[in-house]
Write a structure and sequence with these properties.
By secondary structure, the protein is of the alpha+beta class. 32% of the residues lie in helices and 22% in strands.
Length: 405
Amino acid sequence: MRATTRTRPRGRLRVPLAAWRWAVGSGLVPPADAGPGQWSRAVVEAADPEAVRAALRGPIGAGVAADRLTAALGEPLRCRPRVTAAAVGHLAGAGLLVRLGGDAECPDVHPDQVAVLGRRRDLPVLLDRHVPLGSDQAARRLGVRRVDFDAVVRLGWVAPVGSVEIDYKRHGGVTTVPLYFAEDVALLPVVRPWVDWRRCAPPARARRSLLAALDPVVPGRDRVLLAEVARMAGLGRAAVACWRRRHADFPAPAGGTDVHPQFDQAAVVAWLLAHDKIEVPVGMPSASLAVVGPGRRTFRLDGPWLDLADDAEGEDQLSGWSTDADADELAALAAGEFGAWVSRLTAPNTAPLAVLGEMRVIERFRSGSGGLRVTLAWPARLRGTAAEGRAGGVVRHGVPYAGSG
């Protein structure tokens, strides 16, 4: 019969509590074998105190860890909120970081483990999966104004999954802030593709939310047709009808008729995710802009919005999120002695364009969360589809006027 005498490891070994917790979390010593937070005397006496102390050079606070993970995401963050100290607590709760001490909600963690997490290519996915967002953060993740996200909540398209109390001290005292599942927020453009989400992006063209006139979803009645499911997946209706025949686990109709069945949207989205038919967007689409100035440069603009002029005398416009350095360089190129010329534009869901026109920076907008949105313009008198391959940038066909269609 094995003895299970319980003991406190840090007191017996005379090591810091954080060091013992890291030794357990890193596998240097076995997990608790005599109950929650309790180890048998045999396990404790077998541990090497010097090795336990040496394994932890020193924990860092949740705020420092959050800053390092934010830096790992890359700047500018554009559609993604900064990692907060509370987010570090959620990552620890998910088992991605070891709690070494400090506040339970904003714990101290190991710097090396934070560095390893920051190097993971799926860090954005992990944040979406395990860290809920407040309303302002959710609006940033969706890339819309706060008023538009409030409309999304009113419509019942997302629902709180919890809440947190924040003490704003002199600015209102303790306030309860609802929290939203980040994956639900990020999926909104995928599951509701008929919404013109780009018109909700700051700076929005209209003061009133485009979503204000819509009716809220009736609980339990958020249903979609096969054609709407197809649009979510970016395919034709026939493809979805084929999935329904071939997959026995495809959701059963929740209403409608035999000819036009309706399906519960939440069940359909869960099925599409489980079968890799859709995926959670981890970032914004980007446009690539080739500019000819003192030297050919290619600039990237995230979350692009391309406005083609309605007449040959107008200007084409492109806006998107940029870095401060790129925005400064674009402005300097445009203000040079000979200006700068856009030679090629590649934007999501469009054919590459050969754009022959002198570029101007007409607006720089700084959002409340720090992102910089730049708007460029150039004459619309000639544009055409760029040839593919090595001849890229050469106009295959050009017309003196091209409408927005």
